[in-house]
Amino acid sequence: IGNYWLDTSSFEITVSKNLLFAGRFKLYPIGKDKFYNFAGYAEITFKRGEDGKVKELEWNAPSGKTTWIRK
Questions:
Q1: Residue 25 DSSP SS3
Q2: Could you state, in chain order, the average pLDDT of each consecutive group of 10 residues for the chain (71 residues)?
Q3: CB-side neighbour CA atoms (13 Å) of 29
């Protein structure tokens, strides 16, 4: 949950009715801190810092892998 940035682009992770969304796209849980987005065929992994809080997410899609920073 929060806003994630890559350069000047951003999107928001939200929860609605107990479901996780990246923008308007639903994320399906596939493991601890891992989700799948069927619309973009992407695996999303939330990366935690030493304090246990999510610091970034890794978006791994057929077009490539990007790391988005939580701000």
A1: strand
A2: 95 95 95 96 97 97 96 93
A3: 7
- Angle (CA) 29 34 35, round 5°: 45
Residue for token pair 């790391």: 67
For residue 22, the tally of other CB atoms under 10 A from its CB is 21
- Cα–Cα distance for residue pair 11/66, rounded to 1 Å: 13
What is the rounded CA–CA span in Å between residue 66 and residue 19? 23
Q: Global pTM?
A: 0.90
Identity of residue 67: T
